[in-house]
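DUF881 domain-containing protein: structure, please.
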Amino acid sequence: MRRLRRISLWRAGAPLALLCAGLLFATSATNARGTDLRPSRNTTLAGLVEEQSRRSASLVRQHAALTQDIEKLQAQQGSIDPVLSKQLKDLSDAVGTTPVTGPGLTVTLKDAPSQVVKDNPDVDADWLVIHQQDIQAVVNALWAGGADAISIQNHRVISTTGIKCVGNSVVLHGVPYLPPYKISAIGDRRKLQKALDDSQYIENLQDYVVKFQLGYDVKNESSIAMPAYEGTLDLQSATVPGFPRTPSTSPTASGR
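Here you go.
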């Protein structure tokens, strides 16, 4: 009799267990939405940065393609006055919306090697990495040296370009990048090099290059092909020197 009871209990319990297992699988599939519930490589910061960089680069390419289509359609509507056309070209060159080629310099900045980090556990971690201030110092020195055009990570730098640190990555035009950071400038190479040598900030950076092997390399380039800036030119906010710092949003940004 006991055996019959056990058999009947098993027959009743087995379908219930299978039903519970099915519910668990269904819940897991719904939550995962077809993806791995325990992703491996994409959880690392480097993987996330690379994924976001690829996505942003794709959107920038789409924006550039659409802009070219708009310009072609505008050109089909009628010819532009030659004087106005020249003014437009000159302004485009100054703003950075046309590609340029010429001799110049490329400065490469790197974090300290991993072995140096391991050998100096008591050293402040901020001393062993490249920061936005380091990149800004190089860019400012190159502008001071008369650079005609500058790019960072092969992306054109314009007057509204902002360089920001986010974790151990640097964000440029909304796209995160990991080191090494390559900063190229087109112009007179001797003047550009002198401006780098005269920079007090870069002189201070050289101390950390010697102490902790931060990467700082300057390379002469006989020809640099620099792309045009492909992002938006809308001014999001601005302040007037000498007046209270109350940002004024542009009509384009506010949608008015």
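Notes: The first strand starts at residue 100 and ends at 110.
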